[in-house]
Known about the structure:
The structure is a homodimer. Chain A is α/β, with parallel strands linked by helices. Chain A has eight helices and seven strands, in the order H-E-H-E-H-E-H-E-E-H-H-E-H-E-H. The relative contact order of chain A is 0.18. The model of chain A has no long low-confidence stretch (mean pLDDT 96).
Amino acid sequence: MKVIELEKKVLKRNDEIAEEIRELYKQKGIFTINLVSSPGAGKTSILENICQRLESKVNIGIIVGDVETENDAKRLSKFNVQTVQIITNGACHLDAKMVKNAMEKIDLDKLDILFIENVGNLVCPTNYDLGEEMRIVIVSTTEGDDKPLKYPPMFHSADVAVINKIDLLPNLPSNIDEMKKNLLKIKPGLKILETSAYKGTGIDALCDLLLLKKK
Amino acid sequence: MKVIELEKKVLKRNDEIAEEIRELYKQKGIFTINLVSSPGAGKTSILENICQRLESKVNIGIIVGDVETENDAKRLSKFNVQTVQIITNGACHLDAKMVKNAMEKIDLDKLDILFIENVGNLVCPTNYDLGEEMRIVIVSTTEGDDKPLKYPPMFHSADVAVINKIDLLPNLPSNIDEMKKNLLKIKPGLKILETSAYKGTGIDALCDLLLLKKK
């Protein structure tokens, strides 16, 4: 009981900070995206693909959350983007306060789109609003087509689902139509895109969606 | 500060129950394994393969933890094994109390090996001892060879690492030697096995290990 009460309090405080950040994003005209997925579903690879296509068109910032290592921020720093790494030291998700602190290291006046790459986890980041305007959940074909049914809160909280690693479909028992059906069962009307970050497939459509929503 | 204190208290209580369970397993001569991984790394598929090979040789029990659905228990119930599904209702890991409750539904006198399939999550299950004798972490080749470095506590807590989905290696940018190197960097001496649950590769060696450790 005590745990639940404390959790509620923590979430309430998180929501307050998230609202503060959202207000700031709005004032500055920054479009923000919270990227969530299992470990290894392809968040960083998709960001690399996006940066390659959009770095010359819009000012991009990326806040990267990881339990350990700065590897992801290093991978992204080769692009013309502002990156900040958050090391959570064991914490299983980002929260609004971590993002607020990270934002201090970004020049917000030189920013059009801010990506927040969450910790790889299909459960814990669900209830933590980071003040984002769009939440994108990435699920890879290799995880199996039943994942939306097994982790429904996360998929239900998303605005867009990206099915990544479609290049591997011929070698897998997974069925992409079944995965789409399961996604829509959890969230009717959910926008679904298909990509292969490894082969660069489907990234243009994702970039078009981001630029469209940004306006 | 309050959160950390409460967490310590919760973990202390968990450890106490885990010790109770461990004592009971020992009395009954049951060998127990806690299976942890990211969502979709292949825990259930590997268990299907193990059941197929060992169901006629030893008495198997499986406790399956999921955020939602009884799909995994259903997949495993086609074998001659005792299965119990735990639905965590949003919780991101199993704890010793959930396992203790589930054990009441199993005939422990007809049990040689008990598998506990944890919730798919590379962070939260780490500190929750379930009274197991062996912890096996499954990591799939598709998740990328850097995962041990990015989620070190979980890999450090494991006794055995199973690299699954090796059949996909020719189609991936991941390097299995690099993954092994990273696993051993986090835990020197870690026992590493390679499998493809989809193709049935490497499962015999895993079964041999389990039967050897059981004795």
